[in-house]
Design brief:
Elements: H1 2-8, H2 11-24, H3 30-35, H4 37-47, H5 58-65, H6 73-81, H7 83-95, H8 101-115, H9 120-131, H10 139-146, H11 148-156
Length: 159
């Protein structure tokens, strides 16, 4: 029932409601969140489908506040072996004239076509490099919120 309420609530109201949880967790300050109001609304919109109650917000949004996501041992091995995929994706993102969800998605797809790779072999290493997680919000929602610079930094860390 909580998830249904969260899904129907206006995103600006949810963003306002989760601020205390983010501040209490030490992810940010109230002032910083006030200054980045639109960004926070985008973050909340990206993760709200994964919330059963507002107090669950900290874990799914942590990836937006961390310098680098934590990568487990087996995930690190997978990323090391996917260096070529990550390299071609990074080059496609660098070449894109704009950086938003659509251009990010197009860059990943173009990299997959160039390498003749698709599905899990293409998207899973990108997801792991950007988020450190096996699942979560859509990458086309995550990437613009992280920004081109952070996305490239996280991809290149594994090339």
């Amino acid at each position: 029932m909580g998830n249904q309420y969260i899904m129907r609530a206006p995103t600006p109201d949810l963003a306002r409601a989760v601020k205390p949880f983010l501040v209490d967790a030490g992810l940010s300050t109230r002032e910083d969140l006030e200054q980045r109001k639109e960004w926070l609304e985008g973050v909340v919109d990206a993760v709200k489908t994964h919330l059963g109650c507002l107090s669950e917000v900290v874990d799914p949004v942590r990836l937006f506040f961390e310098t680098e996501p934590a990568i487990a041992g087996s995930q690190a091995e997978e990323l090391r072996s996917a260096g070529k995929v990550l390299s071609v994706v990074a080059k496609a993102i660098e070449a894109a004239p704009a950086f938003d969800g659509a251009s990010f998605g197009a860059a990943v797809k173009a990299a997959g076509q160039e390498l003749n790779v698709k599905g899990r072999a293409l998207y899973h290493p990108v997801r792991l490099a950007l988020t450190g997680r096996e699942d979560g919000p859509e990458l086309v929602k995550i990437a613009p919120l992280l920004g081109r610079e952070v996305v490239l930094k996280r991809l290149k860390a594994w090339i």
